[in-house]
Amino acid sequence: xxxxxxxxxxxxxxxxxxxxxxxxxxxxxxxxxxxxxxxxxxxxxxxxxxxxxxxxxxxxxxxxxxxxxxxxxxxxxxxxxxxxxxxxxxxxxxxxxxxxxxxxxxxxxxxxxxxxxxxxxxxxxxxxxxxxxxxxxxxxxxxxxxxxxxxxxxxxxxxxxxxxxxxxxxxxxxxxxxxxxxxxxxxxxxxxxxxxxxxxxxxxxxxxxxxxxxxxxxxxxxxxxxxxxxxxxxxxxxxxxxxxxxxxxxxxxxxxxxxxxxxxxxxxxxxxxxxxxxxxxxxxxxxxxxxxxxxxxxxxxxxxxxxxxxxxxxxxxxxxxxxxxxxxxxxxxxxxxxxxxxxxxxxxxxxxxxxxxxxxxxxxxxxxxxxxxxxxxxxxxxxxxxxxxxxxxxxxxxxxxxxxxxxxxxxxxxxxxxxxxxxxxxxxxxxxxxxxxxxxxxxxxx
Length: 446
Description:
The protein contains 19 helices and 12 strands. Helix content is 46%, strand content 11%. The protein has helices at residues 17-33, 51-64, 78-90, 101-113, 129-137, 185-194, 207-221, 250-255, 260-269, 282-288, 303-315, 319-328, 334-341, 351-359, 374-383, 393-405, 410-421, 429-436, 438-445, and strands at 4-7, 36-41, 70-73, 94-97, 143-146, 152-157, 161-166, 174-176, 199-203, 226-230, 233-234, 299-300. It is elongated and about 105 Å long. Strands 1-2-3 form a 3-stranded parallel β-sheet. It has a 3-stranded antiparallel β-sheet with strand order 4-5-8. β1 (4-7), α1 and β2 (36-41) form a beta-alpha-beta unit.
């Protein structure tokens, strides 16, 4: 079945890898089923929503490879929400409440002290006209709650399996704030109905909300879409991620030179029964991923794991894929240079260090040559072949050095690597030596 799915971020900050997870999963499901992916901005909170964040979200999703079939903004649909809210009032399912936040907080504390769940007691339904008039004379504006049917709501979750919520254990949710603005729940349900959303895939922190939304779906359209609640990504300390704190933001990963495919693979496959592994493209990721492979336990994000995956992808990347990006980094060594160094980088900007070593000079923190190897370096300089150099030069040079000095293995190769690169590890010198070139090699061995 071709699924219509959506990703509905609030443009109140830059998205992080935890937000990218539902975006990517929804998009992959749409791709795999031949359906549609809707990017829908939940921007009803006008105080915190910002156009620049919406623009950044679009850019970050495009960088990841996510291509929406349509883009919607809830701020442009307020009249639709007002019409439906009136319908719910007329049905007696949306009722006015006048408690202040402090009064509600004190009420919850009293309930807890008595060993009762802190569920709203529906006292607003018992207000007299005189009491309502008194509140309004004080200048109080009502917030509006949805009157739940206190029944059991059950559904078959696409990831978590059979689920049920006892609605008598859930407070009637506030759908409209005292200032008249809408919370997430009502606009989301209305939009899902109007846009034909057939499956809602989101984080498992929304499981309890599902019972409320199913009741709204049943009242407003007579049916409910399917639901699937995936596990959340937590940081290495076991804490949730936050847009406000900028935790592991996609924009930061872009700026630090991570590959979009590696971020996408990690966001989707981490916390599933599939191993996190290099893949050719997003189509391959879509083929590999399935909702029934998602674990029910939280998915821990470890930057070391992402670095490892990113490195593996770069190690298999052809020069043609990165040539323009290398030029933008000021690296001009061409395909030979890329082939020499790609196995020794974690992120693409790392090539700048190796280009500087090959082309400019040894790094400031270079490993120093040992005085004990002075005679060896003199002999190496004496036997250094004249140019032109190619991939065979290293072997012929070191073979001659081995015959002359009797050195072999690490005692032969390590001093040369240190002298030529200032590093104790790095690219294969058979391919890197011709890039360093004869004169720079002479200078470094001297």
